[in-house]
Structure formats: C-alpha cells, structure tokens
Amino acid sequence: MRLFTTEEMRAADRHAIETIGIPGLVLMENAGIKSLITLEKILGGLKGKRFTIVCGKGNNGGDGLVIARHLFNNNVATQVFISAPPEEMSDEARTNCEILTKTGLEPVLIKGRRDIDRLRIAMEFSECVVDCLFGTGIKGDITGLPADIIRAMNDTRACRVAIDVPSGLCATTGNLSEPSFNAQYTITLGAPKIGLFIFPGKRAAGEVWVADISLPEASAVSAGCQHFLLTSDMVASILPQRDDGMHKGDCGKALLLAGSAEYPGAGIIASYGALRSGAGIVQLLLPDCLRGNLSCQALPEVIVNYLPSRDGGFTIDASQAGELGGHAAGCLLIGPGWGRSNDRAESLKQVLKNWKNLAIVDADALNLISDHKLLKYASGPLILTPHVGEMARLTGKTIEEIKGDQIGVARDFAIKNKVLVVLKSAVTVIAEPGGKVYVCSRPNSGMARGGSGDLLAGLICGLATSGISPLNAALAGVFLLAEAGETARNELGADAMTISETASYIPAAFKKLRGNEPVNNS
Predict the structure, then answer these.
(1) On the CB side of 20, how many CA atoms lie within 13 Å of its CA?
(2) Where are the beta strands (DSSP E) in 135-293?
(3) Contact 245, 320 (CB under 8 A)
C-alpha cells in the first residue's frame, strides 16, 4: 500500500484535476460522501446521533461542509462551526459553504472566546466531533484562536474523528504541533499519508480508515510515491515458495556468528529466528570460550561449532575468515552479542573482507562499524539492522534527530552506503539503496525487550537463504515478527511475554500469511 507525503498527495490531486479533468468540486464531493459512509461504519449507524463539525478555510474544511450537508439532508442533527468567513475560504470550500447555507444549515463563525464556549456546549450534546480544521496543509505550531479551538475539541467526551489527518499532524513527517487534535479515528482521503503511521503522529491519528474518493490510479502513480506500508497481502506475495519435493539443501543454509562470554544467549535467540524461518540448515558459530559455558542450550536442530576467542569473544584472523568465506553458502548473520573490543573489530573486518554472499549485520557489529569505519571492507551485499541508538552512532546524529526523521535518515544512509537498512523502533522502517522505503507500523510494547533484535536478525537471515531477494527477506522478517509479537501479546500479555516465547508464535504468523487465518494489518 502506497504511503503519500503532503506534496505527493497534492501532485496526485493536481493530476486528477488538470490532466484527467475531474473538477476539484467533484473530488471534494466524493471525499465528503465517502467520509460519511466510513463514519457510519465506525459509529455503527448515523440515525439518532448528533454531530459537531469544525471546518477551516481550506479544502479540508470544504470536505467537512460536504459531510455536514449530507448529514443535514438525511435529518441527522448537525452543527457546523467555521474558523474563517466564507470570503477567506478556498474556492471549493466557499462554494460548499454557500450551498450548505442555502440548504438551511447556517455555520457558526468562531470569532472569539464566546464562540468557543458555544462550540463546547454543542460538543457536550454530540456523539461525534469531526475535525476538518487544517488537514495536510499545516506547518509549524498552531497558535491563537485555532489552537484554542483544538484544545476545546480535545476536551470533549464525544467520539473524535479527523478527516484526512488530525489538525496539527504533519502528513509527511508525523510530527505534531502544539496543540494538535487527538483523534480516536482518522478517515484519510484518497490514499494513506505517511505521518499517520509513524510516531508521534500515529498516536494522534488513532485507528486509521482509508476513504476511496475515486482518485484515478494514473493520478496516484504520477506522484512518484516512494513509500509503502507493509500489509499482509504484500508480505504473503513475497514469502518463499515451498514444495513437498524439496530437501534441506533446497531450503538454504543460515550461518550465524554470534555471542560472547558477556552475552552467551544472543546467538541462541538468533538461531530460534533462523530455525523458524524455514531455512534447511542453521549453523551457529560461537566463540570457543562458551564451550561448556552456555547459559542455555541451542535447539537440537542447530549445528553448533566454535571459533577461536580471546578475552571472552571472537578473534578471527585473515586465514580463518578466508576459510569461512571460501566455503560460503547461504546467508551470514554477524554481530549479536559480540562486544566491542579491538579483537572483535579486527575479526569483523576480516569476515567482511572475505564473505562474498549476503550478510546481515546486527547489534555490536554495527557499533564496531561505526567505531572503526569498517563498512568499506565489505565484499558482499549487506543488510544492516540498527535500532535507533545504533543508527545514531552510524550516522553521527543524535537519537532525537533519528526519531524526528526516521524515514529520511534510513533512506539517506541506504542510498549513500549502497546497503539495505532495517531501522528498528516501535515503527520499523526498511530502506533500500534505490530510495524506496517500507514502513511496518505495528508497535507492541511487549517487544520492547532485549533479544528482539537478535530474533529478527536470525529470522531475516533464514528467509534470505531461501532464494528470495534481500529486500523481500527483510520485509517478510519484519512483518512476521510483528505478527508473532502481536499473537504473543494477545495470548500472554505485554507485561510478561518473552522473546523466546515470541519465537514460538512465528509458525502461526506464517500460517496466517499463507491464508489459513486472517491477519491484522493495523
């Protein structure tokens, strides 16, 4: 599913109007009618309910005026408040304001405190408040009277619904003004906007519904959208194909270099992900200081071998890395639980120089890359899987800068370094070197635990051995883990679920994606 920026949505609308020839008033009428139909679904019907609709001077306000007219025409109690007089409205909004007035419903112009008090009284007796104040055109903080209007709307006990985007939410970045409308539901028009699916905007958007306003496909394509929301349909279409005539060699080999005396379980957790991916062979290489000292045992299907170590972690020289690379098959995962000593840095450098196939670089390997500038030594394609803190070290930016532009930072790094980036957070962003970005918007507080990144890295590594592209392996791995995590939360609760337990729900996630059970795309 495409995710649009503000400018991309404007370009698509402009194409529909100027190139296809659909009048703007028709698109606005479609937006209002489809929003009304969606409202009916959200609220379980319209009859007998009371609505308060707050409209601004732009086209978002015009959408609200269309909604109000159709509610009024269907004898649904509706009050309309406008933040600007008709002469200051956009052409289409002004036209719809004039039509609404002629039908017999006179909007109330909010000019000061007394009008806001009147708005508060109207909302007190309404089942639903509809925000059509600003839409996608907001820049910076909202101040003055409009800010007071939004604060009043946020105080209501009625159901709060935003049309297109909540007022104050940047459709491109997800950043929020102070104040911004706190919606329980957002009915976004024509196509979903990026800012509704990334934080902090996701929190203000509530549950997102998409209203089809009959925007032509040619217009949507003309905008050149480079952002996509991961959905079950998309991921189901890219999963590895399995055939009953396959043998383990056909299913690929996942090779994991992980663990240290300090983090002995990191490789074990990563191997859980690789095993649950469908990989035919999973081989876990541990530093030999862990021989007989593992805090937990690997599953019996995992082939466990040991490599030389020093001071509690790997010490791999050029000869050993060459031997590893010379027998390369499948996909390599490197980094979980490594530690950050100079020995580990040299070991990583040698492995990167000698490994020609795809490698997943995670955890401490990312920190070593940032500490020692090792990315230039890579001989094969890479998938980097940093969390926000690791991305800050890789880029030299602050954590707040990364959070403020997760998509832009991931995309820029992927393009500059010609790597695929999986930037992990409550919302995970996958960026490819060609500039396209994919968003997995399924936050889960139960997954905010040590080991979740190890499990994901192992899962991606195993999927990549199957023959699907590195990008598809990353997309599928991220979505499968999100689905497994949601099932674990539903079954066990966010407070007490563990990452090891989450791994056991990956098979159920596969079953859902392959069509055995419905999948939640929210």
Answers:
(1) 21
(2) 159-163, 185-189, 207-211, 227-229, 253-257, 281-287
(3) no
Q: Alpha-carbon distance 454 to 468, whole Å?
A: 21
Range of the domain at 74: 2-224
Rounded distance, CA 169 to CA 253, Å? 45
The DSSP code sequence of 275-298 is HHTT-SEEEEEEEGGGTT--SSPP
Average per-residue pLDDT for the chain: 95
pLDDT of residue 398: 97
The per-residue pLDDT for range 255-307, each reduced to its tens digit, is: 999 999 999 999 999 999 999 999 999 999 999 999 998 878 899 999 999 99
pLDDT per residue as tens digits for the range 231-258: 999 999 999 998 899 999 889 899 999 9
Mean pLDDT of 105-132: 98
Q: What is the CATH number of the domain that holds 261?
A: 3.40.1190.20
CA distances from 390 to 77, 257, 258, 350 (A): 54, 19, 17, 21
pTM above 0.70, yes or no: yes
Co-location of 114 and 261 in the same domain: no
Same-domain status, 141 and 179: yes
| DSSP tag of 512 | H
For the segment 85-90, the average pLDDT, to the nearest whole number, is 97
Instruction: Specify if 518 maps to a domain.
Output: no
Q: Which residues contact 355 (CB under 8 A, 6 or more apart)?
A: 321, 324, 325, 328, 332, 379, 380
For the chain, count helices (H), then strands (E): 20, 20
Residues in the chain: 522
CATH number of the CATH domain containing 196:
3.40.50.10260
What's the domain count of the chain?
2
**Residue at which a domain ends, from 171, 190, 224:** 224
Amino acid in the structure at residue 216: P
Cα 141 from Cα 176, distance rounded (Å): 8
Claim to verify: residue 39 and residue 155 sit in the same structural domain: yes
Q: Which pLDDT score is estimated for 73?
A: 96
Instruction: With beta carbons less than 8 A apart as the criterion, state whether 476 and 410 touch.
Output: no
Q: Which residue has the tokens 């695929």?
A: 420
Maximal C-alpha separation, the chain: 86
Q: Is residue 520 part of a domain?
A: no
Judge if 281 and 219 occupy the same domain: no
Q: Are 44 and 109 found together in one domain?
A: yes
Sign of CA dihedral 81, 83, 84, 86: negative
pLDDT of 210 above 70: yes
- Cα dihedral 425, 427, 430, 435 sign: negative
Same domain? 435 vs 384? yes
224-to-8, 190, 234 alpha-carbon distances in Å = 7, 15, 19
